[in-house]
Design goal:
It contains 10 helices and 10 strands. It is α/β, with parallel strands linked by helices and 363 residues long. The strands form 2 sheets. An 8-stranded parallel β-barrel has the order 1-2-3-4-5-6-7-8, surrounded by 5 helices. The longest helix is centred in the first third of the chain and has 19 residues. The N terminus and C terminus are likely disordered.
Amino acid sequence: MDATKPGVLLLLGGVALAIGCFAASARSAPILYGLGFSPHVDGQGPGTPVSQSQIEDRLSVVAFPAQYVRTWGSRNGLELIPDTAATYGIPVAQCAYLDSSAADNEEEKANLIAAAVRGNVKWAVVGTEALVSGKVTEAQLIGHLQDVRNRLDAAGLSQIPVATAEPYGQWANAQPGGLFHRDANGNLVHAEVFRHVQALGTNLYPFHEGTAVEVAVQKLADMYQAVTAAVDSVVPGLPVLIAETGWPSAGNVNGQAVPSLENEEQYFRQVLDWSRKEGVPVFWFEAFDENWKDPGYASVERHWGLHYADGQGKFAVPEPATLCLLGLGTACFLIPRRTRLEVQATRCRSETPENSLGSTDSV
């Protein structure tokens, strides 16, 4: 997509305006901007079909703290998340997961488009760490981005920005497929990707950089600044949001980064405060611990949730209704399970356009 065309400039302007509105109202925003959401329970994992009733059950646990939820796929029932989230008044960043299977990728994209047509998809994430993992090449990723953009436009959904999400950090940047990998001359190898999105998600993890929790938010801010500087050098003003960040509650030490329940809570509160003060949209990773995962590096992969896998909250999280009614930034309660009507009756909304990165209704 040519980012110099008037229509594209209008869309980029709308996305930037929505982020600007978030920044302008950030101090009064009562809840976390976004939360990564997977509805799987123990015994399930990617590829396991999930029902709409299960999605509703899991969403009822986390519907309160987040303005947005973000998904990691659009197959095996995950494409139903926007429909269920709509009943809670929560817009969705819906993902089409990309891998090496052309058939799977087509199903992901088709289901994403169908979900967007039904409504409540506010931005479309095409691929999550697909480039750095080697699941797709740069040319293939750009082809998928263009395809989804064209299909959304054809469906009359040009207001929905198309994005992708890739990590930034020492490991990712060293990989040939890393979105921010540079050649021997210091040039960004995959800069062309920036020209084919209307917003960019970046996954930033100070824990994986071995950073102590006491200075982790400053590390997050430094990483975000480096990402925006790199993006601005190619497409000035392209909106960038943090698509993932978090801290594990258990596992092994990584340098000065110590996984613990206390440190997860500390980092969560610091990120929430920084996001609101700086006006940077952040999606917290993630809603639930996922026991299906391999323990992974430092044995932390199963322990990133705000909730344990059984849905039990790990620590107190700001209660939006209390914050909104009393104007307080410190009142915290464990989040109870809520019905749709209870959530709809108590959810706070600021006066920005749907609190939505993807909303261009005011343009």
